[in-house]
């Protein structure tokens, strides 16, 4: 064989190897291999209204039903150290949750009261913007997700989140999980985690665990895009506030405090 | 040329042995960190970056040593820098290597490091920092090595090296700018979200890098036959003087904006740094050490008599280096996390393993620097004969 024809054939072969990915890009379908569960809750922008007034007035003072439900469902470990604490949902005093609302003569109805805090599932999330591997990303339904298998543990998202919503696995969390829920993955040391708005439950047609666990219906969940959804109805009827709206991340968790 | 690093005096051997030992200790502790996770460090949920990222941030600045000798030499024909450009470049090689190592030891999942390449994400500044740092490392290795080899052979370096040198000048600016952007673009971190952060990084880099270069040149003068020359040292000292003055001025600008406007968010971190916040202030003694050293450095540098005296110049350069290490490394990175998202003060104290791993990486940097400088000095001694 002549060298010239060898190179020609080689060239065609190389072209052929490159054809498949090109064909996939142009001729592939956007349909995924697996169909979604028909039971799944449809939503374009999930959101939540946290009615703290109801929680404070009707709830038992030491009630932690929502927190327990979440942490049990998602295998959130109890590390037992403030330094390495892992939490998806917890409470902070009113003054710490809404520092810009704090003044010397706060009404007794809010002063020092615990406020439920968790990931705000921002529409313009700074954590997603900074992640160098797209391990944290925004879904089409507005949920900010974590890919525990892609996260390199650089903790840039933790620095970028102005809400302190993210926790890092400083050590292997598995020995610190009291009762493992086999239906949800546990994490390894070295990755970041946070509230996922129970995307695994939404996919099965269930509302988030915290919403379900609240005996007083203080947590209202729904689609912001749907004017008739439960959240939109509450937002129309009640005065709500948000955490640090001035930072422009467009949080999707709303609070009723009075 | 590498062979030149293998032969040396007894002192050289002892120095290398010391660095290798320090590296070994650090490496052992790193293995423990790999096993147990970042729990061995003092970092927490609230102060999620610590000593490692602080060293990285500071050392990006030290890498500026290269551009501050290359730019005057190649763009302004400052002949006296001809003898020391190679040392500026090799210092940059050591500094950038340390930067990359500090990022790696800070990762929770170092085995997944290459995810940054597998899933390139241009909207992440960290992605661009990886690009510019690796690029700068490669540029300085290629330039330094080729220029030195040409010098040894007594020929002019190949033409493409000159092109790379011109590229390396704006590239040096990019490493500081991009590293500053890592911090300056985060909502809610008031200490970092300042438009002059990149300018501050450049100013402190142009002071810390050349200051270390002066110290190294004076050390080489003592222990080898290589003398950078009074003129080169004098010019470097002028650069350090200007850059240090601008650097301190920039810190003053931050203080004015925060405390004249009286906007609490802008004041908190600075209060934490200089006087403590809510009764907590681990960094207060460090920041006053910074202030004192910065004043000493400026007094010694601005006074022509003390600037031209080798002994006082050395003191000034050490003061510049240490003060900027405190200000840009420790202070800036750690205080950015204080107070936390809930306006609470959570303090950070590095642990012993963390300090030893940090020392280990400094030892690797020292080792790279020693070997490269040994080669360069040997070549220069050889060609001088």
Write a structural description.
The complex is a heterodimer of chains A (258) and B (385). Chain A has 258 residues and is of the alpha+beta class. Chain A folds into 2 domains: 30 residues; 211 residues, 2-Layer Sandwich (Alpha-Beta Plaits). Chain A contains 9 helices and 9 strands. Chain A has a 3-stranded mixed sheet with strand order 8-1-9. A two-stranded antiparallel ribbon of chain A has the order 2-3. The termini of chain A are far apart. Chain B has a domain of 123 residues. Chain B is 74% helix and 0% strand. Chain B contains 14 helices and no strands. The radius of gyration of chain B is 21 Å and the shape is globular. The two termini of chain B are 17 Å apart. At the A-B interface, helix 4, helix 5, helix 6 and strand 6 of A face helix 5 and helix 6 of B.
Helices and strands in order:
The complex is a heterodimer of chains A (258) and B (385).
Chain A: H1 3-27, E1 46-51, H2 52-58, H3 65-73, E2 89-93, H4 94-97, E3 114-118, H5 126-130, E4 136-138, E5 144-146, H6 156-160, E6 167-168, E7 192-193, H7 199-202, H8 209-213, E8 219-223, H9 230-237, E9 253-256
Parallel strand pairs in A: 1-9
Antiparallel strand pairs in A: 1-8, 2-3, 4-5, 6-7
Chain B: H1 10-36, H2 51-62, H3 65-76, H4 85-106, H5 115-118, H6 125-153, H7 159-184, H8 197-223, H9 230-261, H10 264-274, H11 284-302, H12 304-308, H13 310-335, H14 352-384
């Amino acid at each position: 064989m002549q060298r010239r024809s060898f190179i020609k054939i080689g060239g065609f072969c190389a072209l052929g190897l490159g054809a498949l990915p090109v064909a996939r890009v142009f001729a592939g379908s956007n349909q995924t291999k697996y169909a979604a569960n028909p039971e799944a809750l449809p939503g374009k922008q999930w959101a939540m209204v946290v009615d703290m007034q109801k929680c404070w007035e009707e709830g038992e003072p030491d009630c932690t039903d929502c927190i327990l439900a979440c942490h049990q469902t998602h295998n959130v470990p109890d590390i037992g150290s403030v330094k390495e604490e892992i939490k998806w949902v917890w409470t902070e005093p009113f003054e710490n949750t809404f520092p810009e609302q704090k003044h010397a003569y706060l009404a007794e109805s809010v002063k020092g009261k615990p406020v439920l805090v968790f990931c705000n599932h921002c529409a313009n999330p700074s954590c997603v913007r900074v992640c160098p591997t797209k391990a944290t990303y925004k879904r089409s339904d507005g949920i900010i997700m974590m890919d525990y298998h892609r996260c390199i543990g650089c903790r840039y998202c933790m620095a970028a989140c102005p809400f302190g919503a993210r926790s890092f696995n400083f050590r292997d969390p598995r020995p610190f999980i009291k009762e493992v829920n086999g239906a949800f993955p546990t994490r390894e040391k070295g990755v970041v985690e946070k509230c996922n708005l129970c995307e695994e439950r939404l996919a099965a047609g269930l509302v988030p665990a915290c919403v379900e666990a609240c005996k007083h219906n203080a947590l209202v969940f729904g689609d912001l895009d749907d004017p008739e959804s439960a959240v939109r109805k509450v937002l129309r009827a009640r005065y709500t506030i948000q955490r640090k709206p001035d930072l422009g991340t467009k949080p999707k968790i709303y609070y009723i405090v009075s | 040329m590498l062979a030149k690093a293998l032969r040396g005096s007894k002192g050289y051997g002892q120095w290398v042995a010391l660095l290798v030992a320090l590296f070994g200790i650090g490496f052992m502790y790193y293995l423990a960190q790999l096993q147990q996770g970042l729990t061995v460090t003092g970092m927490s949920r609230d102060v999620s970056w610590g000593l490692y990222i602080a060293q990285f941030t500071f050392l990006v600045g030290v890498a500026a040593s290269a551009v501050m000798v290359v730019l005057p030499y190649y763009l302004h024909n400052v002949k006296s820098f001809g003898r020391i450009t190679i040392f500026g470049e090799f210092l940059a090689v050591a500094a950038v290597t340390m930067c990359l190592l500090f990022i790696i030891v800070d990762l929770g999942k170092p085995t997944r490091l290459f995810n940054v390449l597998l899933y390139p994400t241009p909207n992440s500044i960290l992605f661009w920092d990886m690009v510019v740092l690796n690029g700068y490392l490669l540029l300085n290795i290629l330039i330094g090595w080729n220029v030195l080899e040409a010098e040894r052979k007594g020929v002019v370096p190949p033409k493409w090296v000159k092109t790379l040198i011109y590229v390396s000048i704006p590239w040096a600016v990019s490493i500081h700018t991009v590293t500053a952007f890592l911090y300056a673009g985060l909502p809610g971190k008031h200490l970092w979200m300042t438009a002059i952060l990149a300018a501050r990084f450049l100013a402190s880099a142009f002071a810390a890098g050349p200051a270390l270069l002066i110290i190294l040149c004076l050390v080489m003068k003592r222990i080898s036959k290589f003398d950078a020359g009074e003129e080169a040292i004098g010019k470097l000292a002028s650069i350090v003087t200007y850059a240090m003055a601008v650097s301190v001025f920039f810190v003053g600008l931050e203080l004015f904006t925060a405390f004249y406007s009286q906007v609490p968010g802008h004041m908190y971190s600075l209060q934490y740094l200089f006087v403590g916040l809510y009764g907590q202030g681990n960094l207060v003694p460090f920041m006053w050490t910074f202030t004192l050293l910065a004043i000493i450095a400026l007094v010694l540098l601005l006074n022509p008599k003390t600037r031209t005296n080798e002994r006082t110049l050395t003191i000034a350069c050490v003061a510049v280096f240490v003060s900027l290490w405190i200000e840009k490394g420790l202070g800036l990175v750690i205080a950015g996390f204080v107070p936390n998202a809930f306006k609470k003060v959570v303090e950070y104290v590095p642990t012993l393993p963390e300090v030893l791993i940090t020392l280990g990486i400094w030892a690797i940097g020292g080792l790279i620097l020693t070997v490269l400088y040994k080669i360069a000095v040997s070549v220069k001694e050889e060609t001088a004969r």
